[in-house]
Amino acid sequence: MTYRLPLFDHRVLDLTDGHAGYAGRTLGDMGAEVIKVEPTGGDSLRGSDAFDAANVNKYSCALNVASHPDIVARLAEISDVSISNTGTIDAASLRASNETLIVVEIPPGAGPVSCTAAAGAVGLALWDRRRTGKGGVIRVAALDTGPRIAEVPSPAVEEVSSLGGDRKVPASPMHLSETPLHIRLPAPALGEHNAYVFRHLLGLSQDEIAALS
Amino acid sequence: MTTLSDLRILDLSTGFAGAYCSHVFASYGADVIMIEPLSGGPVRTDAHSWSVLRSGKQSISLDVTNPSARSIFRKLVEGANVVIETFPPGRMDSLGLGFADLHGIKRRIILTSITGAADAADHIAGLNAFAATAIAAHNADAYEVPQHIEIDSAECLSSAFAAGPFESAAPGQALFEMSEVASSPGQPPALGEHTVPILCAELGFAPNDLPILRANGAI
Fold first, then answer.
1. A116, A129, A179, best to mutate vs chain B, most B CBs in 10 Å
2. Domain ranges, ordered by start, for chain B
3. How many angstroms separate the Cα of A17 from the Cα of each of A25, A46, A92, B17?
4. What is the full per-residue pLDDT of chain B (219 aa) written as tens digits?
5. What CATH architecture is A11-212?
6. ipTM for the whole complex
7. Which residue stretches of A14-63 are H helix?
8. pTM
9. What is the pLDDT of residues A48-73, one digit of tens each?
10. Does the structural domain B8-161+173-215 have CATH classification 3.30.2350.10?
């Protein structure tokens, strides 16, 4: 029997900046379709190895959230989970048109420990949602505001080549017998998946897409 | 607000990492049953942090090296979603309780094994085990997908987490708050407090079966 990855039919709207990207990466490792919404200037970690470690297994679209709350709301409407750490958009706005949405708020500056707790909390919230039909809001504690994602993977870890590049990123430490986790997508270029997100998912016209940037 | 009371976890673990993993589940109302050796294990240590780790869990004393006890454990697996264990690799298989055995009993079982316990990595290994198990339990619930999850403590420390220590998540500190799922502190059970209620009320043992099980060292 072969199975699909645990979160294969879940979409995650990742509005985080910096090291909090590791939460979405963990859900992406688990098979979720993770859409990273990046400011048009790019994530603050862009160019570092830590960016890759926090953003493999994601798509990227470039959008300034504060200027286009309507677009973010439409993405929230078709997502199962949103994750944010910037306070740019509040939980009530995200959930306004989708009561099944699970909104995850990670404190500013938190790193992979808070992110791993966040991923587990999403698992519990999904369990609950199957019974109640309701999403909710998860507020994650600041568990590691100092530590950062390791930029140089330890030799003790099996390093996984980022597809299409030389960079190595730390592999997930979660080993699943029936659906081994792996890096399906390299860390995306800024806005690499604009067409998929804006045209295919949201059905925007070329003119509307042009107006976003 | 709801709780996760229909998520049942059998915790065979004997160290901090496994106890921490199941503690997070218990904190949100999951039905965690510690399967404890007859004399109790490290989780019975007096220190405050261990009593926090026991809180909100049930306790059955069951010597899984005893064949009668193993048949009781197998009955418990029928009604469980997750089994957590920290034995040396291969031990569960030699007891007839490996992943294939458990899957044969409960089609969508999640078996979570934490290996290489090391003090510095206990928290982070337990947290990774919790996260992977919670997601896999949801997937098993939705699509009947079993999993054997393996988490190695040393690997957790040297992966994305290498850059710093787990600063402040003492047992008892809430990792997160959920608007729809109530946190559930609970009391720490006495060793074996739930052995008789669970065996008799759930598994169909008669009260006069118990002296025999006690006499042969199963419970």
1. A116
2. 8-161+173-215
3. 12, 10, 20, 30
4. 888 999 999 999 998 899 999 999 999 999 999 999 999 988 888 877 888 899 999 999 999 999 999 999 999 999 999 999 999 999 999 999 999 999 999 999 999 999 986 667 888 899 999 999 999 999 999 999 999 999 998 888 776 665 444 444 566 678 999 999 999 888 999 999 999 999 999 999 999 999 999 999 999
5. 3-Layer(aba) Sandwich (3.40)
6. 0.95
7. 21-29, 49-55
8. 0.95
9. 888 998 999 999 999 999 999 999 99
10. no
CB-CB under 8 Å, A150 with B133:
no
Q: Across the interface, do A147 and B161 touch by the CB < 8 Å criterion?
A: yes
**What are the domain boundaries of chain A?**
11-212
Decide if A120 and B127 are in contact by the 8 Å CB cutoff: yes
